[in-house]
Amino acid sequence: MSSPAPALNDSLAQLSRELDECSVRVERIVTQAADALWTPPPKPGWSVGQCIAHLTRTAEEWVARLGSALADAPPGTPPYKPALAGRLLTWFLEPPCRMKAKAVPIFIPRQRKPPAPELINEFMSAQQAVQRMLQLANGKAIDRVIIPSPVNERMKYDVYSAFRIIAAHERRHLWQSERVLKQLSST
């Protein structure tokens, strides 16, 4: 029988709660969208389903990078100090959106349109993988381990910033999804 994972330090526990809140929002948003899950919004942009599929794909890409970086991370504890680039991107991603950014091709939602339960399950699976990365990060110097961005290999962030970026990015697209639902209900 394996022993339970040690409790996350305060910084990682906060990130875990933020990710949990995003998961709850995804379930609520997808349920509210019902038959309009894949309906294009009145204004140019992504449907609710496309936003959730994009978040799933993004989390999968981050997890691949985080796993290899955490395997070799040295021991360390908070307080973590995110690098300037990570702080700036996190600020930029937080809703409300300050300006739009075009998604790179690997993150553009595919034409596949799974039903709501499958879309939720795929998101939750990716979210659980991010949560596992938080567990792996516990007790490591994650503000000193640098990984390349899945958006552009030349951009690099410390692992702590990467977790903050993931959470902010999820909030951004959930905010976008909620706005799409409002637009669809008012037409």
Keywords:
Four Helix Bundle (Hemerythrin (Met), subunit A), mainly alpha, two-stranded antiparallel sheet, 5 helices, 187 residues
What would you say this structure looks like, in words?
The chain has 187 residues and is mostly helical. The chain has a single domain (10-181), classed as Up-down Bundle (Four Helix Bundle (Hemerythrin (Met), subunit A)), CATH 1.20.120. It is 57% helix and 3% strand. It is built from five helices and two strands, in the order H-H-H-H-E-E-H. It has helices at residues 10-33, 48-71, 84-93, 116-137, 159-185; strands at 146-148, 156-158. Strands 1-2 form a two-stranded antiparallel sheet. Helix 1 (10-33) runs parallel beside helix 5 (159-185). The termini are far apart. The relative contact order is 0.24. The mean pLDDT is 92.
What is the name of the CATH topology?
A: Four Helix Bundle (Hemerythrin (Met), subunit A)
Could you name the CATH class? Mainly Alpha
What is the oligomeric state here?
Answer: single chain
**β-strand number:** 2
- Approximately how much helix is present in the residues? 55-70%
N/C terminus separation: 56 Å
N-to-C order of helices and strands: HHHHEEH
Gyration radius from CA atoms, angstroms: 17 Å
The low-confidence parts are: none
Average pLDDT rating: 92
Total of domains: 1
The name of the CATH superfamily reads dinb family like domain
The fraction of residues assigned to DSSP E strands is under 5%
Q: Helical element count?
A: 5
Please outline the major beta sheet: 2 strands, antiparallel
